[in-house]
Amino acid sequence: MKKSLARILFLALALCLVAGGAWAKTLKIGSISPLTGPYAADGTDIKNGVLAAIDAFTAAGGVPGYDKIELDAQDDASCDGKQTVAAANKLASQSGDNKIAGVVGAYCSGATIPASEILDEAGIVMISPGSTAEKVTERGLKYMFRTCGRDDDQSKAVGKFMKDYLKAKTVFIVDDKTTYSQGLADNVEKECKALGLTVIEHDHVNAGDRDFSAVLTKVKSANPDVFYISLQNSSSGGLMVSQAKRVGITSKLVAQDAVFHPQLIDNAKEAAEGMYLTFGFIDENSPAYQSFAKIYSAKYGKIGAYSSYAYDAATALLTAIKNSGSTDAEKIRAELLKMDMPGAAKRIKFKENGDSGSNYIVLVIKGGKFVNFWDPETGKTF
Amino acid sequence: MAHLLLNDVSVHFGGLQALSEVSFELRPGEVLGLIGPNGAGKTTIFNVITGVYRVSGGEVAYAGRKLAGLKPHQILAAGIARTFQNIRLFTAMTALENVMVAQHCRTRAGVLGAVLRSPAQRREEARIREQARAALDFVGLANVADQVARNLPYGLQRRLEIARALGSEPNTILLDEPAAGLNPSESRDLMDLIRRIRDRGLNVLLVEHDMKVVMGVSDRLVVLDHGELICQGRPDEVKKNKRVIEAYLGH
Amino acid sequence: MEYFFQQFINGITLGGVYALFALGYTMVYGIIQLINFAHGEFFAAGGYVGVIVLSFLGAHGYMGTHPWLCLAFSLVLTMGYCAMLAMAVEKIAYKPLRRSTRLSVLLSALGMSIFLQNGLMLTQGVYDKAYPTAFVQGGLDIGGVRISIMQLLILGLTAVLLFILNALVFRTRIGKAMRATAQDKVMSALVGINSNRIISLTFAIGAGLAAAAGIMVGLYYGAVRYDMGFVPGVKAFAAAVLGGIGNITGAMLGGFIIGMVEIMAAAYVPHGGEYKDVFAFIILIAVLYFMPTGIMGENVDDTRV
Q1: Do B72 and B179 belong together in one domain?
Q2: Are residues B164 and B93 in the same domain?
Q3: How far apart are CA C194 and CA C190, in angstroms?
Q4: What is the pLDDT of residues B181-212, one digit of tens each?
């Protein structure tokens, strides 16, 4: 008696599962970003950017054939790639109705590079919103795209700024040794040398350090025209900038895109005033940005540095799925390469290698805000 | 008054009966010798009284208060102090500090007082120091007060144990083989010390193998064998008791 | 020379933080032979309570009028809060395991660390929390060497707390009771010491010192983050081992040595900045090779708690 009851219950349950699967079809996409650990701030912005894109896309009618779009947000905790590989494997191993149609991520270049190899092999498109190392799109991977720019372009922009606008002669470079931050710093060093600037020293700290007193004392006694800061996140950036001011460094502070985040100003406060940094040009007055900002801030609060890039990456992915009517990577890729539309951060238009072009400009922190300052294209201030 | 009463005390560990229904009393101002062959249960009695072991049956009462369930430090606070068969000093502390630690239960100043070094705390500290010096003086260790315990000769470490027990200002003191390892002259000094302790109004429960010491200093004796009390009375009475002779000499 | 003195100041400031932090590891180890992995979380919690209290006071305008009073108030509150937190952790996670193997307590400590860190992340968020900047400006210039007011504050507070701790452990009955409990738990119970209270107190004091270090670091660096206890925690633990774990004087010494080595390596060795942690641990390994129980020796229990 008992046994047969159990059998009936089991059968009923199985039936429900099958029926449920057939009736409510869900489109699944993935994201990989650090939701815990030192880069949790940027990683959370990325996840929220993707969620905001799903909201917007769903509100606009969604993807035909699916009732719902769902995000499988993986946490890779850091930038070293170990956990990113695990996350990528997890996403790649989903099959059947749970198959992941595409992935937004990862954040750090050092994480994106190993993860993309797994996803590429599994035939899943990956669009990174923040990995700017050149190598990301230079490995001949078919399904690797990015909405952010490239470090070699960024270092050209900043080199030009230091020479032409700041008229700097000497530079002191500090990075925190991640694939991205050190890669960029190396590029900047090369660029400086090419432009005839003297790099007094190129020193390193560890990612996650909070005490920079030793290296800052070094910078102070070297007294360079420009102190170039290449750190992996705004949290470290904030600490370094405020400590730099306290040590009494009077050099011009120039930083890069990874420290571009409201958190930098929150932490460093007055100490951040007047510092420069490079970031992709985002036209905050464009209708695409405006509609993104409205959706995003209503639900997820303050817009982070990579929120709009993640939003664009997810929008591009979903649009490609919708237009191709398929979750096949080859077809999605074809649609992505055809795409040319305004995005929140910049125009969404991919090259054959997966890059979407760089449009780095120099911003300055003024009155507690990031303000567009100098355009390397024109060599003029905004 | 400081009257220690054991009433039908039994202790067993698993199947092993360590004590069975032992009853005796320790009267104010007397030295009671507790003797018996090895394994008779003498140290078990000490551990029962000081709260290290729990009784399986019967009860221990002190000054009209039952001791069941009290923790060692509470029993000490009630006025019962002890020494150990194998010396257990805080070897890294000075002799004076060893005695001062024992007064922990008699002091009140809290952490805050200690940190702020409030006048009350300073007075208390001074009082403790004074009393500890007096206790050292009493056992004849005044001149080694500031030496680290582990550097003291064996005989003096024995005395320091007694001084530490006295440091908690007890009414009752339990001495576990205080003469072990002492030479005859040191043993004589020890007997003198035990008498002087009694003369201060303390009652002393003494476990001792050295018959010369225990017979010489005890007012009464209690004899244990295999966890049972086989005889009690004045030393001269006990010496003649048949069961005692059997227990010590075998059948 | 100025450069050297500047780096020297940096070194002792960082060393002071490590010293305060390391004491908790060493005291707890001394008394119950446990490596308290959750200790770093008290440091982080201290940083957070500090920023919450100071921001609250700032929002009500007290920071502008009585900045030093606010700092003292938040320091006392923070240390008190973390002391209570540590006592609770001890009661919940360690005391029930007092009779189990050391490994199970160690695992419990690891679990507690993860629990507290994630608790901090969930309640306070993944973003940094910035400290008010009222104290951090200004400093002294002595012959070209700049000592910021925060460095003075850290050094002063470290000195005061170390002095108080020394007095507490070596000059008071509570200190004697702590040392007695560390040496022989059974015996100390028999001389009338309530070892549960002493263990609880040891946790409280260690956490209080870590909390003070946390709030100082928060002010000094300008911001706190939920995982800020981890890396300094490893260094502080190394400092405790370097000095001879269980030894209070050793932990203080170890803290200053690790701090100084780190700064000097970054200051003088080419590319030292990236390998400064390596240097800190090389010193640790070298010392342990020749002195396996640390500089002051684990078993010199004169100073052990």
Answers
A1: yes
A2: yes
A3: 9
A4: 888 999 999 999 999 999 998 999 999 888 88
